[in-house]
Amino acid sequence: MAKKEFEKKKAEAQARKAMLEMAKEWDKQKKTQHAIESYEAVIEADPASKEADQAKDALMEIAKRYEQKGKKHSAYYLYHKLAEGRAGSHD
Question: Rounded to two decimals, what is the model's pTM?
Fold first, then answer.
């Protein structure tokens, strides 16, 4: 791999990590919609990355919390997107 390509991949991975950390912070602050959007941005950036896997896990946990709080529609929406591999797409 050329040095330029390596540097590009490294920068992309760092950006995904930063977005993931930002999403976690939003989640801690109970700003769930911001967290969801940030997790989805991580997934959209590179669905096959380890950061995307972590973001998908976090979205699953948010869906479970929604379900426990009786927010069935919101839980279903996230479960559905995850099951169909659409987490990260804005449809």
Answer: 0.86
User: Percent helix, strand and coil across the chain, each rounded to 5?
Assistant: 80, 0, 20
Segment 13-32 shows an average pLDDT of 96
What tokens does 45 get?
């950036």
Q: Residue 85: its pLDDT value, please? A: 80
CA-CA distances (angstroms) from residue 42 to 20, 66, 84? 6, 21, 17
DSSP sequence for 62-85: HHHHHHHTT-HHHHHHHHHHHHTT
Size (the chain), residues:
91
Torsion sign (Cα): 25, 27, 31, 33: positive
Rounded mean pLDDT of 50-64?
A: 96
